[in-house]
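User: Before I run my own analysis I want an independent prediction to cross-check against. Here's the chain; please return only the structure tokens and, at the end, one sentence I can use as a sanity check.
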Amino acid sequence: MNKIITISREFGSGGRELGRRLSEELGFAYYDQEIITEIAKKTQLAEGYVQNIMESKPIFSYPIHIGVSFQAANVVMNQQWQAIFREQCSLLKELAEKSNCVIVGRCGDYILADYHPYRIFVYSDLDHKMIRCRMKGKPGEKMTDKELKRSIANIDKGRREYYNFMTMQTFGEKSNYDLCINTANISIKGIVPYLARMLKGSVLVDEPDFTSEPAK
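Assistant: Structure tokens:
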């Protein structure tokens, strides 16, 4: 079975950078935004729309008094959401069977549970998230501290609600992961070689076969 590492992360914590650097250090395939692109192709939906669906809580029904037109629109949205999640599950399993890989987000730890991935959760405090967002922000993008805090909170809320709804688990709950990393006050570039060395020396090696008779 291929070796799979899944990265769940809070927005601005550097989980994407950690996943990319770790994949390079280990020589594993790396999948992140490519997953959104492929799902968009298969569902014939815009990438931005697929991204938005996967970072917000699905809405299955409006109150009955809303009206027929809204309910009809809701049916379409539900069908699209279900199609996206089916492709999400299918694609992640396809990637897991293809080669050793690092998968960022997309409920990978839950969807690939049968593949026994090494599950990492990356988090940080708000101040360091803001610093990282400022450093990694798009050129010319200007937000006040208040606006940036609101944006980070909203994105984290959407990711948390989507994950909780889809997996019936709790996003960020330490018992759901094999390793939780607080990236505040540390260099991701600096810790990756040590993390890769740890993984190579333990969890990424093949488990011994205890079913055969011991050598005499």
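Sanity check: Helices lie at 15-26, 33-43, 47-53, 68-98, 108-111, 126-136, 145-167, 188-201.
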